[in-house]
Write a sequence for this structure.
């Protein structure tokens, strides 16, 4: 079941719900069914140091260093 963002046209509240395709959600604030369904944003990619290090190690193993800055490539003598 997808998660959707909803905007209540009656009271203006914005919220997200996990609903089945056939469900008719109502606003949790005012109970009105007059909602505008909006797709939820995807989760952003992680930016932790561990993820970056893992990606760089994989890139180095494959023989490319495109995700390194010019200064980092100079230190690695690539």
């Amino acid at each position: 079941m997808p998660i959707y963002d909803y905007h209540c046209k009656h009271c203006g509240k914005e919220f997200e719900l996990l609903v089945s395709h056939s469900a008719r959600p109502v606003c949790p604030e005012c109970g009105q069914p007059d909602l505008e369904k909006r797709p939820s944003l995807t989760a952003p990619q992680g930016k932790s140091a561990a993820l970056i290090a893992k990606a760089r190690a994989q890139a180095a193993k494959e023989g490319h260093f495109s995700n390194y800055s010019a200064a980092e490539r100079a230190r690695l003598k690539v």
